[in-house]
Prior knowledge:
Blueprint (H helix, E strand, L loop, with lengths): L3 E10 L2 E6 L2 E7 L1 H5 L8 E10 L4 E6 L2 H10 L7 H10 L2 H10 L2 H4 L7 H11 L28 H11 L4 H9 L8 H13 L2
Parallel strand pairs: 3-5
Antiparallel strand pairs: 1-2, 1-4, 2-3, 4-5
Amino acid sequence: MIGRLQGKVLDKSPPFLLIDVNGVGYEVECTMSTFYNLPPGRDEPVTLHTHLIVREDAHLLFGFVSLAERTMFRTLIKINGVGAKMALAILSGMSADEFAACIMAEDARALTRLPGVGKKTAERLIVEMKDKLPDELGTAAVLSPVAGKPAPAIASDAAAQAVAALESLGYKPAEAARMVSSVKDEGLDTEELIRLALKNSLSR
C-alpha cells in the first residue's frame, strides 16, 4: 500500500496530478478540495496522503491533502453502491466537514445535488454513514481554500479544462458546461472555476 507521497508537482490536469518522487512520476487522482490547497505553480513540493486501489486492469492512486479527507474517502468506499469515483465526486463537491454536516442533519436534498447521488443513494448514505463519521473531522479546516494564496495565471482553455474535470467527476457534458458558464468572473484559473461552479451548483 502506498500511503503517502512527497515530491514535486510536474503537471496539474484536474482531477489528476503528476508528482515526481525521486525521478518516478506518480499519477494521482485528487479531490477538488486537495487541488485548491496545492502550491500555485508547477515544480513545487507537495505532500499527499494516498490510497491505492488495485484492480485487474489498473492500479489507481488517490491523493488527499489531509488525513481526515482520506479517512472519509476510505469510509465512503465501504458503503454499498459507493465506488471510488463517487466518493471522489462527493468530496469534490463538498468538504469532509460539509458532508458530515449533511449526514448529521439528514439533508438528503443537498446530497442529491452531487453527481451520481440519487434520492435512494442519499438516504442510504445518511443511514449507513451516521455511525461511521471519522473523529478527525474537527481538524479538517485545512480542506478550506487557503486565504491569500496567489492564483496562477489562467490558461486560455481554463474553461474547457474545468468542464473536462467536472465530466470526469461524473457530471454530464451539458451540465458541466452549464455549471462553468454560470461563473461570471473572468481571469480565473481552472481550479477556481471548478470551485465556483461546484459552489454555485450546490447552492441552488
